Amino acid sequence: MPAILRLVRDLAEYERALHEVKATEEDLRTALFGEEPRVFAHVAEHDGEVVGFALWFLTFSTWLGRHGIYLEDLYVDPATRGQGHGKALLAELAKIAEERGYGRVEWAVLNWNTPSIAFYESLGARPQDEWTTYRLTGDPLAKLANT
User: Fold this and answer.
1) Domain edges within the chain
2) Contact of 52 with 76, CB cutoff 8 Å
3) Annotated catalytic residue: which of 14, 75, 102, 120?
4) What confidence tens digit (pLDDT) does each residue in 54-99 have?
5) What gap in Å lies between CA 54 and CA 71, rounded to an integer?
6) pTM of the prediction?
7) PROSITE patterns annotated for this entry (predicted)?
8) Is 49:88 a contact under the CB 8 Å cutoff?
9) Per CATH, which fold does 2-145 belong to?
10) What is the pLDDT of residues 11-50, one digit of tens each?
């Protein structure tokens, strides 16, 4: 858990949002290993040290009538990028999707993150430009919940 949380914080710092990280090791432990895990993680190791992770959960497509994988976070320590860790993590998710009959693996990437976009596109991933992500959180979420 310490390594995954460290990488989560590194990713948030890279994405200029470290101040938004509220997760603790215990939060991650409960989510990944609690009574009913609904989120999953894979790690990449280099010389015995965790240098990357992919954290994901199941989605469902009513159009496909099948589950899919939503990749919440993919991050590899900058010192070990270019060594195949990110590709190996994505390949593992693709393997899981194929083996289980899932219809897709999808994720979001920040528009300014051109290195990641280039990496994803080199693997054959394509942007879904016709969709806009919306988020309801904080006070608006609470207000709607109490309607």
Assistant:
1) 2-145
2) yes
3) 120
4) 999 999 999 999 999 999 999 999 999 999 999 999 999 999 999 9
5) 7
6) 0.93
7) GNAT
8) no
9) Aminopeptidase (3.40.630)
10) 999 999 999 999 999 999 999 999 999 999 999 999 999 9
